[in-house]
Amino acid sequence: MNKKVLITGGNGGIAIAIKRELELAGYEVFAPGHQEMDVTDIISIERVVSDFIPDILINAAGYVVPQSVKKADLVSTRKHIEINLLGTFYCTQIALKYNSQLDIINVGSAASVTTHATWSEYCASKAGVVMATKCWAEDGLYSVVISPGRTKTKMRKALFPDEDQNTLLEPADFAKVVMKAVRKEYPSGSHIIVRKNNVQDILNNIAL
User: Fold this and answer.
1) Is 57 left (phi over 0), alpha (psi -120 to 50) or beta?
2) Quick one: which of 109, 183, 202, 206 is 20 to 30 A from 75 by CA?
3) What pLDDT digit, counting tens, does each position of 100-121 carry?
4) Where do the H-state alpha helices sit in the chain?
């Protein structure tokens, strides 16, 4: 029987690319968007997970709106933490309730290890995801975090409309790295940072 994969944040460019790769490999995939499953709403998550019951959970939902902490919008601050960090916990814990053998792949961000003056909420929440992933691995789960660098997505385009698109990681290439994690080619607890300049080496097993 083909394994079932649930991808959060299903409308995002990265989630769409991962879904395509998984389906080509024969997995049964459900990638609900925000309207179908709100990762900050426990009831919404419970409804989706109890119906689908995944073998693999890919936490790909994300939120970023750059702002200086000196001029912070507290509503936006809360939204960063709720979607990026709490949403990852909520979806994982609820999915584990229905399948204790769940494999977890978290989509992090290179921003989890790189400072950006006006991205403190995003950087901090994604760093939290990286540490949670490592803790879950130590807790006996298969848990890996794959962190993209600058990636060609609609979210990135909205933030940086004048950026040279040729310098960005392709979502399809990132999805291929995620597939390596799906196949458990990385030890549990691994944090793989994927950028345009190293993705081919990663795919060719030259570098991690």
Assistant:
1) beta
2) 109
3) 999 999 999 999 999 999 999 9
4) 13-24, 42-52, 74-80, 87-98, 120-138, 154-159, 171-182, 199-203
Average per-residue pLDDT for the chain: 94
- Which domains can be identified in the chain, with CATH numbers? 4-203 (3.40.50.720)
Backbone φ and ψ of 123, nearest 5°: -60, -45
Q: Residues 6 or more apart from 120 whose CB is under 8 A from it?
A: 69
Q: What SS3 state is found at 58? A: strand
Cα-based angle 58, 59, 61 (whole degrees, multiple of 5): 130
- What are the pLDDT digits (tens) for 113-160? 999 999 999 999 999 999 999 999 999 999 999 999 887 777 777 777
Residue 12 CA neighbour count, 13 Å, CB half? 21
Structure token digits, residue 95:
């999915």
Is 192:202 a contact under the CB 8 Å cutoff? yes
Q: Are the CB atoms for 32 and 44 separated by under 8 Å? A: no
Q: Is 146 strand, coil or helix? A: strand
Sign of CA dihedral 50, 77, 125, 197: positive
Residue with tokens 């979806």: 91
